[in-house]
Amino acid sequence: MNRLAITICAALLAAVGCSKKHDVAQPMSSPDTALHGQTGKAAQPVQADPSAALATLTHALRKYSLENRRVPANLDELVRAGYVQTIPAAPPGKKFAIYPKRMEVVLVDE
Questions:
Q1: How many domains does one find in the chain?
Q2: Which of 29, 67, 96, 100 has its CB surrounded by the most CB atoms within 10 Å?
Q3: CA-CA distance, 24 to 100, in Å (whole number)?
């Protein structure tokens, strides 16, 4: 393995292994054009504060990526693989999307 791959693996292991609650930073308005969105699985009721959902989805994304050695094509893969039961509903006018550069789930405009 090259140094970059080892560094990324170590960072992912540290992130997945932490049981400590992390603050969820506000994403940029347009994080990246390479976002992978939700494709339409049944969603839970809309929450007033989506930060808990963002933290849960980001944790599942990182764990999936570490164990499968790839970023999922969309959030529905996390459901199919059993990392989360459902994708929560996003606030009106927003949707959850994968931001692969930072390995996190963010809210973006629909």
A1: 1
A2: 96
A3: 16
Q: What predicted TM-score, i.e. pTM, was given to this entire model?
A: 0.60
For 62-67, which contacts have Cβ atoms below 8 Å and span 24 or more sequence positions? 62/12, 62/15, 62/16, 62/103, 62/104, 63/16, 65/12, 65/103, 66/9, 66/12, 66/13, 66/16
Supply the range of the domain harboring residue 54: 3-109
Token pair listed for 32: 């990246």
Q: How far apart are CA 25 and CA 39, in angstroms?
A: 24
56-90 pLDDT, tens digit each: 999 999 999 999 999 999 999 999 999 999 999 99
